[in-house]
Amino acid sequence: MVTRISDTPAEWEVTATSTPFQGNKTGVRTDQVVMPDGSVVGRDYQTHPGSVAILALDEQDRVLVVNQYRHPVREKLWEIPAGLLDVPGENPLAAAERELYEEAHTKAEDWRVLVDVYTTPGGSDEAVRIFLARQLSDVEGERFEVSEEEADMEVARVPLEELVRGALAGELHNNCLVVGCLALSAALASGGGPGALRAAQAPWPARPFEAR
């Protein structure tokens, strides 16, 4: 018998909360949380507006990837285009379209929700929606002007199977790239393919939004 499991909402009592640090987009919060045995324990975590990522797949089953320096880990990582939900309640599809344009000067005609994840639920409330984007084409007009780390960004198209191989070999480490490629590989192997994935405007309880 196959057991179907699902994450469920839950919220333990918080007796006090503080924000030791608040940056431009993210912060650190400390909650005093009541444990099942009645004890109260402090829990520190990053507060985050949420993100979107885009696995853009072309007609040759190549994935659009970008190479970007990430200072906290001191590495240049191969990633899929991604970005923050800059406005509370922002439509995630609109944010994904924006990021695909800004980072890769690309647009897509077909969008699906590939997978929703919490990046590090033990230490952050960041939620990421990873989209599958297909029917790709270049955006007309001038490229978006990039700066800072993105000014050194390299864009490439790599076969999906090579990215899966690199992830399993420990050569690729970006979580959205790894999760997205493995999720798409599993979807293709299941027989349902992209058509069985959720619609681009599917509800996202972790970051509620108004469908457009």
UniProtKB/TrEMBL annotation:
Query: Out of the domains of life, which is the source?
Result: Bacteria
Listed GO MF terms: hydrolase activity
- Which key words tag this protein in UniProt? Hydrolase
Offer a single GO CC term for the protein: cytosol
SUPFAM superfamilies xref list? Nudix (SSF55811)
Matching entries from Pfam families are given as: NUDIX
BP term (GO), one: nucleoside phosphate metabolic process
Where would I find the Nudix hydrolase domain in this sequence?
46-180
Question: What InterPro entries does the annotation carry?
Answer: NUDIX_hydrolase-like_dom_sf (IPR015797), NUDIX_hydrolase_dom (IPR000086)
What name does UniProt use for this protein?
Answer: NUDIX hydrolase
Q: Which organism is it from?
A: Streptomyces diacarni
